[in-house]
Structure formats: C-alpha cells, structure tokens
Amino acid sequence: MEAGVERFRQQRQVLILFLLLGVTFAGWESRRYSVMEEIESGSFVANLVKDLGLGVGELAAREARVVSEDNEPRLQLDLQTGKLTLNEKLDREEMCGPTDPCVMHFQVLLKKPLGVFRAELLVRDINDHAPEFPEREMTLKIPENSPPGTVFPLKKAQDLDVGNNNIQNYSISPNSYFHVSTRNRGDGRKYPELVLDRELDREKQALLRLTLTALDGGSPPRSGTTQVRILVLDINDNAPEFAQAHYQVQVLENSPVGALVVKVSARDLDTGTNGEVSYSLFYSSQEMSPTFELNSLSGEVRLIKKLDFETVSSYDLDIDAFDGGGLSGKCSVSIEVVDVNDNAPELTISSLTSPIPENSPETEVALFRIRDRDSGENGKMTCSIQDDLPFILKPSEENFYTLVTNGALDRESKAEYNVTITVTDLGTPRLKTEHNIIVLVSDVNDNAPAFTQTSYTLWVRENNSPALHIGSVSATDTDAGANAQVTYSLLPPPDPLVPLASLVSINPDNGHLFALTSLDYEALRAFEFRVGATDRGSPALSSQALVRVLVADANDNAPFVLYPLQNASAPCTELVPRAAEPGYLVTKVVAVDGDAGQNAWLSYQLLKATEPGLFGVWAHNGEVRTARLLSERDAPKQRLVVLVKDNGEPPLSASVTLHVLLVDGFSQPYLPAPEAEAAAAAPADPLTVYLVVALASVSSLFLFSVLVFVAVRLCRRGGAASAGRCPVAEGHFPGHLVDVSGTGTLSQSYQYEVCLTGGTGTNEFKFLKPTFKFFLISN
C-alpha cells in the first residue's frame, strides 16, 4: 500500500515538472480553467482574446485552432469574439475515471507567426453517482469463539465520483454484536470492517442479517446498501495462511489471453474440511474483474482480456483463502503492466497549404503534430522527409513540426512534389508511420516569351494580292495558364516615316504575317521591322524579333527606249554618208527596264527595214551599223523598226522607229523627212512660199553661225584624248551632241559627242565618247 502511495506521488511530481517545463517554453503563461461536469453544450469557458492579450479579429487573422491531447472536439472557439465554449456535455467519469483531479490539456494553435498557448480545463465532479456494492448480499462465517474486537473485512462499495462525492462513511443496522469501522487504504479509498463487540453464541443465534450502508459526501449525499448474512460456526482454530502477504509481479502488455500472471498459495494446519483451502477475489480495482480470472482451487491468476499499458498501467487485487471450517486468510497482489512497443507513432495534420507560389522565399507548407502512446524509449520519436526534396522540417513546441520550403521553388523545373513524412519511434522493434503530402507549385510569370529565331527572313513576290499570308513568327513561353498565352504585335519602327502599318499586319493569336498592299519591287525592294511577343501575366513580359521582308522582282515593266526619243514633235533622222564602210555606226538605241535581274536583261533586233540587208542591230548593246557598202541604188530614205525585248517570263518588249538619210556628203542639203515631203507635195500659196524661203534663209544663216561656233569650241578642247580631238577643216561639220538622260532604274545617263570629220576621204560619222552623269536612284 505504501509503495502505491509513493508511486502516485512520484507521478504527480513528474506531471508537475512537465507542466513547469511547458510554461518555460510557451509563448504565453499556461492557464487553467474549470467547469462542472454535465453542464450544457455551449456553456462559456473563457475569453481567449482577453487572456492572450490579442486584438479583436486577430484570432481569425492568425487562424487560431483548439487542439486537445486526445483529438476529441470537446471545445469550440469563436474566432470573432474569442469565446471558448463547450462543444458537448462533459462526463468526468467517462473522461478520467477514478483519476482526480480530472484535467483536460489543450492548446490554442496560432499561425502567422506560429504560437502555442497551452491551457488545461479542470472538470469538477458533481455527485451524480450513488455508491454501489458488488453484491446485493454478502455472507460471513464467524466462529462462535471469536473474541470481542475481532475485525472481519467487508466488501467495499464502488462510487464513480471522486473527492468528497466518493464514499466517506459506512454504517450498519443496529444490532447487539457488531459495529462497522471505516478504514482508509493507501490509495485513499475507504473500505468497511465489521468489528465484533461481544461473543457470539451459536446455540442462541446461529444466523444474523444486517444492512450495510455506504454513504458518500455529496450534497445532497447519496447512499447504497447491501445485506450482510452472518453464519455463526463451530470452532475452527486454524485459519489459512498465504506464503506471502503481498505478491508483486510484472506482465508484458502483449501477453496472450490465458497467460499465467501469478499463482498464490495458502495452507491450513487443520485437517479434514477445515484444512481444505479455496481461493476467491476479495477486492479488485475497477478494471480487474473483466481482465483477470482466479482459479479457486489452484490459486492461479490468468488473463482473460488483452492488456493495454496506455489504458491501465497497474492493477491491485486482494485474494481470500477459505478453509472448510469458515476461517480465511488474505493476501494482496500488485500487477504492473510492462510497456511494449505496440503503438505506431501518430501524425495529425493541423494545416496544409497547397499550391505554393513559385519563387517564394521560405514558405510554410504544413503544420502537424506527432504522438506515440507508448512510454519510455518506445514513446520517443524521430521525424524526417526525403533528402532530395527542397523542403525542411522545423520542430516546434508540444511535438509540433512545420514543413517549410528550403528556398524558392521553380515550377518550370518541377510543378509537383510528393513529400513523405516518416515518423519512427525508438522502441524495439521500431515502428514507423508515413504520411504523404502532395505539394503543388503554382505558376508565377517569371519567363518572357522566346522566339524560335532571333530574326526571320521572308520573301514575297511583287504585285501580290492584298492580305496575302507571307510568313509566320512563333514564340513559346515556359510558364503556364494565362502566363503562357502569347500575343503578337508589330512594334513601332525606329523611322516614323516608314508606313509599316500600311504594309504588313500580324495576327495577334498565332503570329501569321500578312501583306496589306500590293508591293512594288521597283519602289520598295526590302524592308524590316520588329515584332513583339507579350504574355498575359501580371506584370506582362515580352521579347522581340527582327523580321526582314525581301520583295522578289516580277517582270512587270516593259523596256523603255531612252534614245531616240519617240515622243518628240519631229522624228529623229540619222545621216549616213554613202561612202560609209560596212560596220559603220549609224546610231545606238538606248533602253532601260525597271525590273531587275534577268527581267532587266535587254536584247535588240531589227524588226523591219526599208532595205532588209543594209543595216544590222547588235543584240546586246543596241548599236545600229551598216551591214554592207552603200550603193546608188539604195533609197536615200531608210526606215528602221528596232525591237527591244527583256528576258523575263513572259518577255515584254518595246519598239522604236529610226529614220536614216543616205547622203553623198555632209555638204548635201538636208533632205526632208517623209512627212515633210508629203506636206510639200501639196500646192502652196506663192506668198507662203516666199515666206518659207525667207525664213529658211535666215534660219540657215543662223544655223551655220551656230555650227561654226560649236566646231571652234570642240576643236579647242584638245589634249585629253587623241581620239577625242575633232579638227575643224574646210567642209567639216560641227559635232552633234546627243544627251540621253537616265530615267527609271537606269544607273547612269549617257551623253554622246558627235562630229563629222573631213579630209579623210570617208567623212565618217563618229560617236567620239560618252560622258557619264551619275544619279542616285531611289527605290
């Protein structure tokens, strides 16, 4: 009994020590609240806002939760008002059994930042249970020679209440032989003893019936009764004696049903029926009866129910030994249940945050608590996760752990993590519990769209139809959702004079490029611009790419004849002396083509001629030369049609008409053109003729003066080139200056100096030299 009292005191000291250590490490001072059992659900317990010193609404902002040791939701917290109320009626006897005081430990868990307020709720007992005896009638056999003052133990009553509400006193109905004395056991419980006041006389009264009453200390008090049947026996002078007055044994909690716990033994020195011993349980603790079984003949105590150290760690029972004569002896048995590692650790998730935004610094993912119902080394635990994950575990108070990210996460590298939390105890064998958590990583717009190429080159043939698809650009974004949706756009050109908006457009959804107008190679051969790709994140990210559009030439320009001019009021007439040698240069047809490449390669051919074999045209340079010697039979007026054709597909062409006069010498009067002859053939008025003759005379005199002046100037140029000197001699004609200006895409202009040389016998008509003028051609 004294050992039980000492063990109880040690347990209380350990409990107080843990409470003091908890207060030392807690963020707030631990508090105790109290309520009466069986009060209605919703009853007020405490105001945590006031006790914690928090502001209104801070409990909700910090996601406060009430967590009890046994995970039963007996308390309810109003996050708005801070009131802590009962969630259900509390039954002290159901919660704590015979343990007094009945204390329910709980924590108020706060987040952001993490804090734990530890408190306990004392459930005060009310007198809601009356004492009850295990039997409605008990029988005592008392020898008639028992001396006064002999004490006979009686079976105690059970009262589920504690403290003053438990059994305080026993009484017995009035009689002449006995009174009841109330004794205290070492565990604080009271039991009755029947005390003999005077000697019994079996011959006078062999049977007595008394009423035993158990009274508790509640207000109002409750009571329970049982009948005591006393048989007065003849003399039996030796009572059974146990080998040990107290048995103390240990049994493993995983012992099978039917296992032998202990065997008690008693002997009686009497003989016959007075020496025959039988055993019975005299007193057992509350959980004893359905757990152990006593063999009345052998004294063996065996298990009839599985043990659980976490529920009951020790048992106490009293065993009586009776002989045939009605005498008895008593012993006590203390059974200590030895803990084995039969409970795997438990893990309870308090909060879980998923998904986690990528690029976030250290972020709390989960808050959980671990627990092992075993004791000693069997109850010690380690907690871990996989080593190859970007997460770490941070221990906190009261076996709470926080799972946090170990740095920023990148969704593009990995969007989902499977975290396995492993809790292992230190028992033998070791037991473990695993809990899987799926952590998703949400996308943040941290990647700009990337084009597949830094620059794109597109070709489009000129004269295209408007809205023609000329190519595409493409960009990808490694983000997800709206952050990966790409929109394309044309960026403003650096040169504001470039009409980019009227040239091309882009589909914002797929990056397709379209030509808005028909492009002309001769006006615009190439242009470039930048396109942008922007995602739909917030803030939006973008990138750029260069697009160069090259216009391919088409044969859409026919050759254009620069010389001889075809739109002059009077046709150009070329003079050829009849003494000209074969190959004599009559003139040169100059033409250009606005196209490029082979579309601008020109070839010349003589299409029509008055004398088909008299003149020839060089195919590549357009020079018109005599093909043979001239004769008197050749008509003095020659009409040539020269065809100029490009090398495109299909080829385009233009024609030019040349008038050539064959003269014996340059002193021969100028022959009129065919059109002039036709006009002269008409009858003329005499006055008109006179006027024409006078005008011709004056004009001839003026023309002669101009020719002389030009010849003198030309002959003075001298020295630059020997072939370029044109001496003026008798009968010489001044040089003829032909200026062919470049138009269209012709890269230079041609100016020919022409003079007639005399005294050579041939009077050759020569193009002395071209004079170049350069122009900047704008496309």
Task: Write up what this structure looks like.
The model is unreliable at 1-5, 10-27, 667-682 and 718-779 (pLDDT under 50). It is rod-shaped and about 200 Å long. The protein has 779 residues and is mainly β. The protein is built from seven helices and 52 strands. The strands form 16 sheets. A four-stranded mixed sheet has the order 1-7-6-3. β30 and β31 (432-442) form a beta hairpin.
Based on the model shown, name its key terms.
779 residues, four-stranded mixed β-sheet, 52 strands, rod-shaped
Q: What is the gist of this entry?
A:
With 779 residues, the protein is mainly beta.
Detail the poorly predicted runs. Answer: 1-5, 10-27, 667-682, 718-779
Strand order of the largest sheet: 1-7-6-3
Mean pLDDT: 80
Strand tally is: 52
- The protein's oligomeric status is single chain
Query: Class by helix and strand content?
Result: mainly beta
Shape category? rod-shaped
Topology:
Layout: H1 2-25, E1 31-36, E2 44-47, H2 48-52, H3 58-61, E3 65-68, E4 75-77, E5 83-86, H4 92-96, E6 102-110, E7 115-124, E8 137-143, E9 151-153, E10 167-172, E11 178-184, E12 190-196, E13 207-216, E14 223-233, E15 241-242, E16 246-252, E17 260-263, E18 266-267, E19 278-284, E20 292-294, E21 300-303, E22 314-322, E23 328-338, E24 346-352, E25 356-357, E26 364-371, E27 381-384, E28 391-395, E29 400-405, E30 416-425, E31 432-442, E32 450-451, E33 455-461, E34 468-472, E35 475-476, E36 486-490, H5 500-503, E37 504-506, E38 512-515, E39 526-535, E40 542-552, E41 560-563, E42 573-577, E43 585-588, E44 590-592, E45 602-609, E46 615-617, E47 623-626, E48 637-646, E49 653-663, H6 674-680, H7 686-715, E50 733-740, E51 748-756, E52 765-774
Parallel strand pairs: 1-7, 8-14, 16-23, 25-31, 33-40, 42-49
Antiparallel strand pairs: 2-5, 3-6, 4-5, 6-7, 9-12, 10-13, 11-12, 13-14, 15-18, 17-21, 19-22, 20-21, 22-23, 24-26, 26-29, 27-30, 28-29, 30-31, 32-35, 34-38, 36-39, 37-38, 39-40, 41-44, 43-47, 45-48, 46-47, 48-49, 50-51, 51-52
InterPro entries: Cadherin-like_dom, Cadherin-like_sf, Cadherin_C, Cadherin_CS, Cadherin_N, Protocadherin/Cadherin-CA
Subcellular location: Membrane
Keywords: Calcium, Cell adhesion, Glycoprotein, Membrane, Repeat, Signal, Transmembrane, Transmembrane helix
